[in-house]
Every structure is written in structure tokens, then in C-alpha cells.
């Protein structure tokens, strides 16, 4: 699996801006302070994140589609645009 993942990283080296990582704990922040929850309910657990650069949403989807983690049954990657000034 590591060889396949490293080959994918090499192929899309110019697209990968930040390999991100697993997400840890967090807090809910309001104007009154911060608490340990309640968090937004979700059916799936967010395991981590990665930031890539692409000329289009279609290009970003191709990078995600070829990610080794997506080939496992039941797995998915959510692709979101980040708008910058």
C-alpha cells in the first residue's frame, strides 16, 4: 500500500500543496466561549485532509479519483473548492 500511495504522491507532486493529516479533537467556539461539543452530527467521520492545487474542479477530482485510499470499497473523498482572493 505504501508503494502505491508513494507512486500516487509522485504522480501528483505538482498538485499537492499540503499533505494535511489526521484530524484530532476540537472545540465549538462561540462569542460566549468554547466547549467540547455538541459537534455537528455526521454520518461519516472525517479522517483527515489534504490540499491540492488544480486548474479546475475536474482536475482536482481526477487527483482524488486516483488516490489509493479511494479504491477500497466504501471509501470516498470529498472535494471542495477553496476560494482565495
Distance between the termini: 38 Å
Mean pLDDT over the full residue set: 80
Strand order of the largest sheet: 1-4
**Total beta strands:** 4
Q: Please, how many helices?
A: 2
* Main beta-sheet annotation: 2 strands, antiparallel
Mass-distribution shape: extended
Poorly predicted runs: none
How much strand?
Answer: 15-25%
Helical content class? 10-25%
Structural class by SSE content: alpha+beta
Provide structural commentary.
With 85 residues, the chain is of the alpha+beta class. It has 2 helices and 4 strands, in the order αββββα. The radius of gyration is 16 Å and the shape is extended.
Task: List the SSEs and their pairings.
Blueprint lengths: L1 H10 L4 E7 L5 E3 L2 E3 L12 E5 L4 H9 L20
Antiparallel strand pairs: 1-4, 2-3
Features:
single chain; 85 residues; alpha+beta; two-stranded antiparallel ribbon; 22% helix; extended
In short:
The chain is α+β, with helices and mostly antiparallel strands. The protein contains 2 helices and 4 strands; from the N terminus they run αββββα.
Amino acid at each position: 500500500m505504501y508503494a502505491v500511495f508513494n507512486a500516487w504522491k509522485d504522480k501528483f507532486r505538482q498538485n499537492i500543496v499540503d499533505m494535511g493529516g489526521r484530524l484530532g479533537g476540537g472545540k465549538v467556539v462561540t462569542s460566549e466561549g468554547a466547549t467540547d461539543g455538541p459537534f455537528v452530527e455526521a454520518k461519516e467521520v472525517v479522517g483527515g485532509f489534504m490540499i491540492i492545487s488544480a486548474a479546475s474542479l475536474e482536475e482536482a477530482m481526477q487527483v482524488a479519483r486516483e488516490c489509493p485510499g479511494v479504491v477500497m470499497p466504501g471509501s470516498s473523498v470529498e472535494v471542495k473548492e477553496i476560494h482565495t482572493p
